[in-house]
Amino acid sequence: MEAAGGRVSNFGRFWLIAGYAFLYIPILTLIIYSFNDSKMVTLWGGFTFKWYGVLAEDKEVLDALALSLKLAFTTATSSVVLGMLGAFAMVRYQKFFGRTMFSAHLTAPLVVPEVITGLSLLLFFVMLQRAIGWPERGMFTIWAGHTSVGMAYAAVVIQSRLLEMDKSLEEAAQDLGCKPFQVFYLITLPMIGQALASAWLLTFTVSLDDVVATAFLSGPGSTTLPVLILSRAKLGLNPTINAIATITVAVVAVGVMAGSLWMYKQEKRRAAEQAAAYRDG
Amino acid sequence: MAANLATTAHKSFVRIDRLTKRFGDVAAVDNVSLDIEQGEIFALLGSSGCGKSTLLRMLAGFETPSEGNISLEGESVIGMPPHQRPMNMMFQSYALFPHLTVWENIAFGLKRDGMPRAQIAARVEEMLNMVQLKRYAKRKPHQLSGGQQQRVALARCLAKQPKLLLLDEPLGALDRKLREQTQFELVSIIKSVGVTCVLVTHDQEEAMTMADRIAVMSEGRFIQVGKPHEIYETPNSRFVADFIGKVNLFDGVLAIDEPDHCAIDTPEGRFYVAHGITGTIGMDVSVALRPEKIGLQTEAPTDTSSNAFRGTVVDSGYYGSFSVYRVELAGGRKIQVAITHAERHVELYRRGDALWVTCSAQSLVVLIS
Ligand SMILES: Nc1ncnc2c1ncn2[C@@H]1O[C@H](COP(=O)(O)OP(=O)(O)O)[C@@H](O)[C@H]1O
Ligand SMILES: [Mg+2]
pLDDT of B150-193, one tens digit each? Predict the structure, then answer.
């Protein structure tokens, strides 16, 4: 038994390491080669920061970055507001006309292939523009596409939080004299605040790295960063792309680590306080 | 307050009138009427799903009655939203706001009323003293033990000086040992404040020790309403006799019916009962006999005024302050007998002992329904 267990565990460990290697070696290579002082991507020519300097002066990249951030910000915000309304409708109102249909529609964008979403929205906007002369393809149309997907993500996250929330908290607030809107901003909002933040971050990321829907919905002069990277990569690998990617990885890694660390600390503090409460009776 | 008492003394403080609540076609509360007096602690007692919480939630305003009326001090509260009703409810889960401190939880209702700051501080202080949680004011609910959370919930309700305090399973979330201690504390706080209180529980001991009056509920209806000892000593039905405490029920037919006594023939023999009933000879009835009202003796009884049957001990359990026996009667029927150990040296019976089972005519109750 002992020996068999050992063999299996060694076997497992091998695959675990192989898996991590497969995932992270390309990223590591990319980071290393962003400091490569040679135009040839495959040849090491010494260490340099120059690609980062080139990047800082590349107006196309900076514009794309600005657009991406603006889009991600507006998408996240609108997705959370709309997703929250949808989640409330689903959790708080058990019976209303078309509830099943509404439920399906709320989460449909999660399962419909993005190519379809992008294409159908494109057709819709083109028809609309022909009919009433609006909207021009650009930031607005991309935002609409991102929000239709982001809203579904946000609704799922917020809905699960609302479902686990003790309904009697809201009743207690009412009982103690809150009018319905006071119940919402004094009790419900603080209770689901963390879920709203998660949903915001999630939709922010989804919007930030979306390529497929964006490619359909963007117009001339409205290229987002991932679309730009993709189009440049198609022209041939280039150290500036490595530099963009390295910055992105660094930002994401720092963000994720800070987030987990904060959550870990919160959890530990909470556990300690709880233990203390029982200790002093 | 005193003037108020005088003017409302003749009519009931809370009146529940033919109240019904249907969910779909199931009546969770079914045509219930009740008067509650000022200052009374009233318990709704029944097993899970009998509609107690629904009735309480209708009082608080969280459920709209399908039919009937609720009035407080003579005025109907139907249609009044929960935040306007002068009642406060303590939830089974306590529903303390997790993002607020103990102090803020207690002040929450007062702030909604727009009470001036200084007054709020004084009132919260008073409440914290009352529940002895002053040094926990700055803590969050998750930093408190179960018993402390319960006291915060109570303080939060009472801070608003409600006319009616509603408690849903107030001790349900506490462990057994804490419950006994807490139920006396709770009653003494409620009585010292003088607030009228309706509490919901499925625990009959809790209802008996805490309440002035109890309504025993089943399937949305009141089966019996009365003081704890009335419900225990003179249950009005097999259901109540069985639900409250332990009881031996003997099914039989009415043989003699006089104004001051009656006799019931059962397979175990004839029972003489010291009260009359209004019924017809030969009707099916039951006789209820509480285990602690039974005597055991080895010699045949000489006193002919009480009921006596032969029996054999099947099982016995020694609990220190009392013993519980299971005794098989002549017909094969097994009954439960509880003998209190009032003296240090009592005779203990053992399995297989043949003896006489006695009970006085006064200790029996005839049940028609
Ligand atoms: N909101 C509701 N919708 C449908 N049925 C309900 C609802 N609330 C309670 N009920 C039903 O009403 C009955 C009584 O419930 P409740 O008052 O909670 O019982 P108790 O508190 O005595 O355990 C139960 O059968 C329960 O399923
Ligand atoms: Mg209940």
Answer: 999 999 999 999 999 999 999 988 888 888 888 899 999 999 99
Give the separation between CA A245 and CA B234, rounded to whole angstroms.
84
Interface test with A, best of B108, B140, B151, B200 (most A CBs within 10 A): B108
DSSP-derived secondary structure letter, B135 = G
Phi-psi category of residue B92: left, alpha or beta, with phi > 0 → left and psi -120 to 50 → alpha: alpha
SS3 of residue B257 by DSSP? strand
B130-153 in b/e form (b: 16+ CB < 10 A) is: bbebeebbebbbebbbebbbbbbb
Euclidean distance between CA atoms B143 and A24, whole angstroms: 42
Q: Please state whether the peptide bond connecting residue B81 to the residue before it is cis, i.e. omega within 30 degrees of 0.
A: no
Query: Are B93 and A168 an interchain contact pair (Cβ–Cβ within 8 Å)?
Result: yes
| Cα–Cα distance, A94 to A90 (Å, whole number) | 7
Name the residue in chain A with its Cα closest to that of B136.
Answer: A277
CA distance A68 to chain B (A): 35
Query: Is B82 at the interface with chain A, CB within 8 A?
Result: yes
Domain ranges of chain B: 14-239, 246-367
Here the ipTM equals 0.84
A50-57 vs A239-279: helix axis angle to the nearest 10? 100
Q: In terms of C-beta density within 10 A (0-12 exposed, 13-18 middle, 19 or more buried), how is residue B364 classed?
A: buried
Binding pocket residue ranges, ligand 1, CB within 6 Å? B 23, 28, 46, 48-54
Delineate the domains of chain A, giving CATH numbers in brackets. Answer: 53-280 (1.10.3720.10)
Q: In this structure, which CATH number among 2.40.50.100, 3.40.50.300, 3.50.70.10, 2.170.130.30 belongs to the domain B246-367? A: 2.40.50.100
CATH of span B14-239: 3.40.50.300
Distance from CA of A212 to the nearest CA of B (A): 41
> Are B291 and B338 in contact, with CB atoms under 8 Å apart?
yes
Residues in B closer than 8 angstroms to A276, CB to CB, are: 143
From A257-261, A270-274, B143-147, the region with the lowest mean pLDDT: A270-274
Q: How many CB pairs (< 8 A) connect A and B?
A: 66
CB within 8 Å of chain A, chain B residues 164-193? none
Q: Does B140 touch chain A (CB under 8 A)?
A: yes
Residue of chain A whose Cα is closest to the Cα of B106: A176
Give the amino acid at A1: M
| SS3 at position B100 | coil
> To test the ligand 1 pocket, which listed residue (B53, B66, B169, B204) has its Cβ within 8 A of the most ligand atoms?
B53
Q: What is the pTM of this model?
A: 0.82
Q: Do B95 and A169 touch (CB under 8 A)?
A: yes
Cβ–Cβ under 8 Å, residues B22 and B29: no
pLDDT in tens, B328-366: 998 889 999 999 988 888 778 889 899 999 999 999 999
Radius of gyration of chain A (CA): 24
Of B91, B113, B148, the CB nearest to A172: B91
Q: Which two tokens stand for residue B73?
A: 């001090």
Contact at CB, A175 and B83, closer than 8 angstroms: yes
Using a CB–CB cutoff of 8 Å, tell me whether A191 touches chain B: yes
Q: How far is CA A92 from CA A85, A95, B61, B96, B177, in A?
A: 10, 9, 18, 21, 38
